[in-house]
Amino acid sequence: MTDAPEREVAEEVSRIAEDIDTMEIRGAATIADAAARALAAQADASEAESPSAFLDELRAAARVLCDTRPTAVSLPNALRYVFRDVRGATVEELRESVRESADEFCERLDTAQHDLGRVGANRLRDGDTIMTHCHSTDVLACVEGAVEQGKSLSAYVKETRPRNQGHITAEALSEMGVDVTLIVDSAARRYLNDVDHVLVGADSIAADGSVINKIGTSGLAVNARDRGTPIVCAAQTIKLHPGTLTGHTVEIEMRDESEVIDPETASEIGDPEVLNPAFDVTPPRYVDAIITERGQFPPESIVTLMRELFGESPIQPWEL
Ligand SMILES: O=C(COP(=O)(O)O)[C@H](O)[C@H](O)COP(=O)(O)O
């Protein structure tokens, strides 16, 4: 790893990093968009007097952003994308180039989600019932695409403890005209027989086709397989984890126990140890398809797309 000197990052970068850390900004695609905009903000705010100082500041900003949440690979992938196209012999040229690259990335992110939605929509038939877990904008794009095709859908929406992101999904689906039923997480199996497709998003997809998504996804997938209900993962290619091509595993974020239980209640029940993993890993055998903006893939074949997109030796954004 290149050791960039410690540098102060722009206030806007610290604010965005804080918002990602506290989950004011959350969900893999939204985090990617915010991270790219943060690099542009760093470029705008920079008072560096040399190109190398300017680039050191950008690398420092990338580190601060990457340190927020470890599981969503869309974050380092976004930074990598922006860095890749940065060119210039002067600070002003570099600054302009970062702005352009970040804008282009955010546009591509929107287009990819729209294109993915059209692919996902084709799987859904008029009158289908889906089940969702957490809140995924890629999943919502598929539903939106189906609704635009004139299909009428119903949804069982899992609450998604401990942070109840299912509430955001319920609201978004209702606004699209989907008939929504909210259920607690543990009720999922009971209703799977009434469901045509389980639709989930992803924070990372590993080279073997494993889907890393909100905690509870793997249990849902095992239950869906047992009931014969197809499970589909909607994930733009920004979710493909290049490090897994070279044997790295995806770090699962452990969050604070206060999300699970307040200190007073914990004390009343004898202060048990509390574990709060934010994500889990669903092996490819439980996933029927991964839907991307490049089309639909069986999970086991995703490695081919990863090689095409990333090559074989991915590096961290601040190494560029
Ligand atoms: O697991 C989550 C969000 O977790 P958290 O709430 O902890 O960030 C979402 O399913 C993925 O990030 C995909 O989201 P999107 O499809 O919007 O990228």
TrEMBL record:
Active site: C134 (proton acceptor), D203 (proton donor)
Gene Ontology biological process terms, A to Z: pentose catabolic process
Residues at which substrate binds: R26, G27, A28, A29, R69, N213, K214, K239
Gene3D superfamilies, A to Z: translation initiation factor eif-2b, domain 1 (1.20.120.420), Translation initiation factor eif-2b, domain 2 (3.40.50.10470)
Gene Ontology molecular function: ribose 1,5-bisphosphate isomerase activity
Isomerase is among the record's keywords: yes
Catalytic reaction list: alpha-D-ribose 1,5-bisphosphate = D-ribulose 1,5-bisphosphate
Keywords: Carbohydrate metabolism, Isomerase
EC number from the UniProt entry: 5.3.1.29
Cited InterPro entries: IF-2B-related, IF_2B-like_C, Initiation_fac_2B_a/b/d, M1Pi_N, NagB/RpiA_transferase-like, R15Pi
Record NCBIfam families: eIF-2B_rel, ribulose_e2b2
HAMAP family linked: R15P_isomerase
Similarity remark: Belongs to the eIF-2B alpha/beta/delta subunits family. R15P isomerase subfamily.
Further information: Reaction proceeds via a cis-phosphoenolate intermediate.
Free-text function comment from the UniProt entry: Catalyzes the isomerization of ribose 1,5-bisphosphate (R15P) to ribulose 1,5-bisphosphate (RuBP).
Protein name: Ribose 1,5-bisphosphate isomerase
Native organism: Halobellus rubicundus
Lineage: Archaea, Methanobacteriati, Methanobacteriota, Stenosarchaea group, Halobacteria
